[in-house]
Every structure is written in C-alpha cells, then in structure tokens.
Design goal:
single chain, alpha+beta, Uridine Diphospho-n-acetylenolpyruvylglucosamine Reductase, domain 2, 5-stranded antiparallel beta sheet, 4-stranded antiparallel beta sheet
C-alpha cells in the first residue's frame, strides 16, 4: 500500500465536496478498490469513505418500483423480506455474490460504479430497466454502463440509489468461476410490467449487454426451450483461459433457459 488521505464525511454534500476538491475516489465496500490499490492498479490520493452517510443505505418500495440505496450491502439485499416480496430474483443474485465476507462488505452502488465485466449487479440493472440515481441526476440503465470498468458517472458524482421497476417475472442464472464466484456467464431475464422481455448478459463480454436474439425468442414464447434454442453469435465475446468465446456463447443460451425456468 502507499500513502493516501482518508476522509469519512457524514453527509452526501460533504462527500461530494471532498471528491470535487481533492479529485479523490469514493470508497463503498472496498471489495474491488482496495484490492486494486494493493496491486497499484489504482492510486487515488484521497479516499472518501461513504459508509458514514446513513441516507445512502436502505430498501423500500415506491409505487411500482423497488428502491435500493447505493450503500446497501449484498447480504442485506439477500436477506430482505421487502426484496423477496417484490423482486425475489435480486435476493437470489445478491446471495450468490462472492463469499460471505464480500456479501457483508460489498455494496450495490460500489458494484455498478466499478462495472466489472463479470459482476452480477449490472445484469440486473440492465434487464430490469432500472434507473441509477445520483446526487446530480437520474441515469437510465441503457445509458449508465459504457464499457469495461466505465460508466456515465462524473468525477464527483455519487450514486445514491437504484430504482428497479417491479417486473411480472424475473430470474438470474449464472455459471460461476469456481474460485472467484464471478460470472463466467450470467443471464438475468425479466418480463416487465408492459409485457416486454429483457435479457442482460454479464461475464461473457468486455461489458454487460442485452441479448437481442434471446429477447425476441422469449417475447414470442417465454419458455426455457425457446431460450435454449437460440444460437448466440460468439463474435466479440471473451476468449481466455476460463472459456472460449464459443463456449461462452453456448452458455448464454443455457443460462437464459435456466433463468426462464426459475422465473416460472
């Protein structure tokens, strides 16, 4: 590790001011950022810890949406009766993230701000057509994720919450890396309130993406067989020691089928 300044603001306004004045990095659960700092992949001069800002955590229903605060831990989502009653797929997703330590430290906001290409939360945000709320604006899911570890967030912009419209049906299925528990391929499928179907894929490519062929098939027949019958193009998918692009393309259809089956 190396020398850096640490700040623990108590309000959102103070946190934003600290980021703007220092050019530092916000610290949520630290499960990705601290590891990156140890490897010198990230070297912020100032860390602005958000854990002292109580307004950034919590889970509530607002009309036809489920709103989850940015600093809400994965474990709290997994164990929430409100989440299980509104969008149980999110509880399942959160319960499958990493190990117990990661789930008890990592946060929703930290995960999507980091935008790891194999993280679980981006698939849920995109598939549910969620809205990312910050201290400055509201960002649609389709506009938030820009590429590998890249989002639409400004330098001093802080995620405050994510609003998930409650779908008719939804489920998440992933094929995890046995060591990291990150998704080799993960597919979140949602049938929204208006009847449209969205399927978002994580782990298979440099960034989360919607699987249009699977969405088209499921719009016609929301069944596991319809999803599994889709032949996904391997072009542009990851090809590494964990799995070839062709293997990942095959897994996209398989995981989509499992997600539809879980969604009922």
């Amino acid at each position: 590790m190396y020398t850096f300044e640490y700040q623990l603001p108590k309000t959102l306004a103070d946190a934003a001011k600290a980021l703007a004045s220092t050019g530092g990095k916000p610290l949520a659960g630290g499960q990705s950022l601290v590891a990156a700092m140890k490897l010198r992949l990230a070297q912020p001069g100032t860390l602005v810890d958000l854990r002292g800002i109580s307004e950034l955590a919590g889970i509530r229903k607002e009309g036809d949406a489920l709103v989850i605060g940015a600093m809400t831990r994965h474990a709290d989502v997994a164990n929430s009766a409100v989440v299980k009653g509104a969008i149980p797929a999110l509880a399942v997703l959160a319960d499958g993230i990493g190990d117990r330590q990661v789930r008890n430290m990592g946060t929703l906001g930290g995960s999507i701000a980091n935008n790891d290409p194999a993280a679980d939360w981006p698939a849920a945000v995109v598939a549910c057509n969620a809205t990312v709320q910050t201290n400055k604006r509201k960002i649609a899911a389709g506009d938030f994720f820009k590429g590998m570890y890249e989002t639409a967030l400004g330098a001093d912009e802080i995620i405050t919450a994510v609003s998930f419209p409650i779908p008719k049906k939804a489920a998440y299925a992933k094929f995890p890396n046995p060591a990291s528990r990150f998704a080799l391929v993960g597919v979140f499928v949602a049938q929204l309130a208006d009847g449209s179907v969205r399927a978002a894929v994580t782990g298979a490519a440099p960034a989360v993406f919607r699987a249009a062929p699977i969405e088209t098939a499921l719009a016609k027949s929301f069944t596991p067989d319809a999803a599994k019958a889709v032949k996904v193009d391997a072009k542009g998918l990851n090809n590494d020691l964990h799995g070839s692009a062709a293997y990942r393309a095959h897994l996209v259809s398989v995981m989509a089928g499992r997600a539809v089956a879980a969604a009922g």
